[in-house]
Predict the structure.
Amino acid sequence: MRRNKVAAYITAYKDYAALNQCIQAISQQTYKVSAVFVLDNSPVSLLKNTDSSIVISHHPSNIGIGEGLRIAIEWAISQGYDFLWTFDQDSVPTLNCLETLLETYDKLGSDNYKIGIIAPTPIDKRTNEVVEGVIYNCDRFTACKHISKVRFYECDAPITSGSLIALSVAKTISPPRGDLFIDGIDLDYGLRIRQKGFKNLIVPSAIMYHNFGQPIKVKFINKEIFIQKYSALRHYYICRNHTYLSTRYAKGWYKLKSCLRRLKFLIRTTAFILIYDSEDKVIKVWACLLGTFHGLKGKLGKTW
C-alpha cells in the first residue's frame, strides 16, 4: 500500500469527553494520520493545544458543520494532504479502520473507477444498528441498505463522520455548503460528487462506532421500535434542509411528488412528537412546520 498523507478533521461542540475519546481513537490507528484539525464551535473552548499535531480553530459564534467542513477541506488542500478523514465528535473508529479504508481505495481506485469518498460502517452501540448511507431516488433520499458480506458497496452519500475524502476529487467540485448549517450537508456533498462521475463507497469490514441522535424505544402497533428524539433546533434544520434538498434535486413532475412526500414526513414527525415526546411538544411541532416552510421557500442559513 502506497503511503498517503492523511489529516483527520473533527467538528466539536461542548462535549469534550467525547471529543478526547475521538482524538485518542484517531491517534491509535494502525495507519497514522499526520495531523488532526479540530474546529470547535463551543461558546467557550476548553481545548488546550499541547500537541503540535493537533490544529485548533475556535469559532464561538458556531459556524455549523457545513462551513466547518469547507474550512477543513480548504486547509487540508493547502497543506498538501491526499485525504481528509472527517468526524463528528461522538465517533470512535476501530484500530485498523483507516488502514482498511486506504487498502480498499488502493485496490479499487483507477482512471476507470474514480473514488470520491470511501467510508466505514457506522454502528450505534446503543441500538446495535448500522447508520446507513443514502441514495437519491428521483424525489427523495432513502436509506441505502447495508450489505455486510461484500468488500464494498456504492451509495450516493455516506454519513459525514468517518468519511475519507479524496482531496484530488474535492478540488474539482464546490465545497460543502455552509448555508445548510447542520443536517443534510453530507447528503448534498456526496450527491454532488456522484453527479460529477465519482464513486462513493462504504466498506463493511471497516468499523466505526457512532452515536446517532438520541434513540428512544417505543411501542408502535404492538412492536418495539427505536425513534430519534431531537431538540427543536434539530427538528427545524432536519425538516428545512431535507425539504430543500429533496425538492431541489427533483426534476419535472417529481418536484411535486417530492413536496408531497415532505408534507407526509411533516405529518408523521408531528404525530410522533405529540405521542412519544415528553418535552417541549409545541415548540418542536412549530420547528417542524417552520423548517418545512423555509425549506420549500429556500430560506437557508443559520436562521433558528
Q: What stands out?
A: DSSP finds eight helices and 14 strands in the chain. Residues 228-297 form one domain. The longest strand covers residues 199-210. The mean pLDDT is 95.
